[in-house]
């Protein structure tokens, strides 16, 4: 019995040493990959994440991060494979569902994106960005009221979420709530007076409310900032 216990202890010691060696190799590789990613060197990041995975194939965070890097270089097939790998091994990984949803938005698979965002939110990814992105998917699926509800949540969690005000404004315009849209675009302009989209949206909603002078002022400003849509609407409506 003593010999048996000694063998067990020895095996445990060897196993612990192997794990420690892997961790000591994985951490520097992962840190290097993350630095490449943060610097925008996505191909280098992919190579380093692959090295991390070679050292420790069960390290799902490396697959997840590599998927994000592949997404940045438009390798949709590779990114999807990495996100699927994580979800297959960790079906409650909210981050992986959210990342796969982002990929599906890029591929214009809005129904698939919405399904993944729903899972991500249900699993705990209930921050402002998750609700904003789910709202975007709903807009593309013409679920304007539900999209507005998600933008509402995003703004409640992050009151200075400019993009949420702008997208909520456009969703309200789609529902012909021009007064509500005007309020959202005005708030966006207040938060950042350098966004052409905010002036364009405000100009459009002003036009729908028959405030032509104010509308044309906003459309002109948006056009000067480079908005092609604003320039076309200005040419058509501000004579």
UniProtKB/TrEMBL annotation:
Transmembrane stretches, start-end: none
PROSITE patterns: TPR
GO biological process: receptor-mediated virion attachment to host cell
InterPro entries assigned to the protein according to its UniProt record, in alphabetical order: TPR-like_helical_dom_sf (IPR011990), TPR_rpt (IPR019734), Ycf3 (IPR050498)
A cellular-component GO term for this protein: cell outer membrane
Keyword terms: Repeat, Signal, TPR repeat
TPR repeats: 60-93, 94-127, 128-161, 162-195
Signal peptide feature range: 1-20
Cross-referenced SMART domains: TPR
Keyword Transferase: no
UniProt cross-references to PANTHER family, sorted A to Z: TETRATRICOPEPTIDE REPEAT PROTEIN 6, UDP-N-ACETYLGLUCOSAMINE--PEPTIDE N-ACETYLGLUCOSAMINYLTRANSFERASE SPINDLY-RELATED
Protein name: Tetratricopeptide repeat protein
